[in-house]
TrEMBL record:
It comes from Lactiplantibacillus plantarum CMPG5300. InterPro entries: Homeodomain-like_sf, HTH_RpiR, RpiR-like, RpiR-like_SIS, SIS_dom, SIS_dom_sf, WH-like_DNA-bd_sf. GO terms for biological process: carbohydrate derivative metabolic process. PROSITE patterns: HTH_RPIR, SIS. This is Transcription regulator, RpiR family. Residues 1-76 form the HTH rpiR-type domain. The lineage of its organism: Bacteria, Bacillati, Bacillota, Bacilli, Lactobacillales. The keyword NADP does not apply. Keywords: DNA-binding, Transcription, Transcription regulation.
Length: 287
C-alpha cells in the first residue's frame, strides 16, 4: 500500500496522528522542504508525535518518512509520464516511443531529485568544498563517471579534486587527508565495504565527509558531515542500466558546482575571462 494511501485510510491512528496525516495530505506540495518543527507548529502537535507517526508507518524517523513521501508525491504528480526506471523500454516499443520514454525518464528523475534536495545542506556542502585544501572523490563504476565530470567543472573555479581510486592508490590518498581537506563519497547504493572503512577513518581523524547516495539506509551516512540522499525507483540490480540514478547524480553535482560558483561569482567570472583571452590570443592554444 502506498504511503499516501496509508495516511488516508489507516484506522489505528490516534486523534493527534490523524490531525498530522490530514495536514500532510492537504499540503503535499509543502512536504519536501518542511521542517519537523514547522509541521509540529502547523498541526499543534509535537516533534515526538510526528516521529511516532513516522515509526508507526515503518520508518526510523521523520527524515526517512519525508524522503519516501516526497518520492511518492513526485511520482504521483507525474503519473501520466511515469516510466519504469529499471526497464524503461521493451522490444515492442517503436523508436519514437523509446525516444519519448527516455526523455520522460530523465525529466522525472531530475524532478524527483529536485524535491529531495535540502538547500541548507547544499549551501554547507558548497562552502566546505570551496574552503577545502584538497578534495578527494571516492566513487566506482558509473558513479565515477559523474565524479570525473564534477572534477572537470571544479577546475574552472580553481578547485582541484582528485579521483581517489583512479590509480588504485585510494589507501594512500585517504591517509594523506587532514581536517583541512574534504572527502566526498559518490555511491548510489552507498554500501561498499572499503568506502565504509575510509569514511570511518575520516570521522575518527576529523576529516570532513560529504556523502551523495541514493540509499536512505546507507551505512556511509553515519560517518558523514553532510548527506545528500537522492532516492529513485531504481533497483541495485535487475535493470537495463543506471539511467535514473546517474542523471539525478549529474543534476545534484551540477547544482552543487553552480552554488560553489555563485558564492564567488565575480572572482570566478574574472578568471573565466582571463583564461579565455589567453586561449584566444594564442598563448595557451592547444591546436
Amino acid at each position: 500500500m502506498q504511503l499516501i494511501e496509508q495516511l488516508s485510510h489507516r484506522s489505528d491512528f490516534t486523534t493527534t496522528e490523524t490531525r498530522i496525516a490530514t495536514y500532510i495530505l492537504s499540503h503535499q506540495d509543502a512536504m519536501p522542504n518542511i521542517l519537523i518543527k514547522e509541521l509540529a507548529a502547523k498541526t499543534y502537535t509535537s516533534h515526538s508525535a510526528i516521529i511516532r507517526l513516522a515509526q508507526k508507518l515503518g520508518f526510523h524517523g521523520f527524515r526517512d518518512f519525508q524522503r519516501a513521501l516526497t518520492t511518492e508525491i513526485v511520482i504521483n504528480t507525474q503519473a501520466t509520464t511515469n516510466v519504469d526506471a529499471n526497464f524503461p523500454f521493451t522490444d515492442k516499443d517503436a523508436v519514437t516511443e523509446i525516444i519519448k520514454k527516455m526523455a520522460d525518464l530523465k525529466t522525472n528523475a531530475i524532478a524527483n531529485a529536485q524535491h529531495q534536495l535540502r538547500p541548507e545542506v547544499l549551501t554547507k556542502s558548497a562552502y566546505l568544498l570551496n574552503k577545502a585544501r584538497h578534495i578527494m572523490l571516492f566513487s566506482q563504476g558509473d558513479s565515477q563517471l559523474r565524479a570525473r565530470s564534477f572534477q572537470n567543472k571544479l577546475v574552472k573555479i580553481n578547485r582541484f579534486a582528485q579521483i581517489a581510486e583512479m590509480y588504485a592508490d585510494e589507501a594512500w590518498n585517504i591517509a594523506s587527508l587532514t581536517p583541512q581537506d574534504c572527502a566526498m563519497f559518490i555511491s548510489y547504493a552507498g554500501n561498499t565495504d572499503v568506502h565504509q572503512r575510509f569514511a570511518k577513518y575520516c570521522q575518527a581523524h576529523h576529516i570532513p565527509v560529504i556523502v551523495l547516495t541514493g540509499n536512505v539506509d546507507s551505512p556511509l551516512q553515519q560517518f558523514a558531515t553532510y548527506q545528500l540522499v537522492i532516492t529513485q525507483n531504481e533497483r541495485n540490480n535487475a535493470k537495463l542500466g543506471t539511467f535514473a540514478s546517474q542523471v539525478s547524480f549529474d543534476y545534484v553535482l551540477d547544482t552543487l558546482f553552480a552554488i560553489m560558483y555563485a558564492n564567488n561569482f565575480q572572482t570566478n567570472l574574472a578568471h573565466l575571462k582571463t583564461t579565455q583571452l589567453l586561449i584566444q590570443d594564442g598563448t595557451l592554444q592547444t591546436k
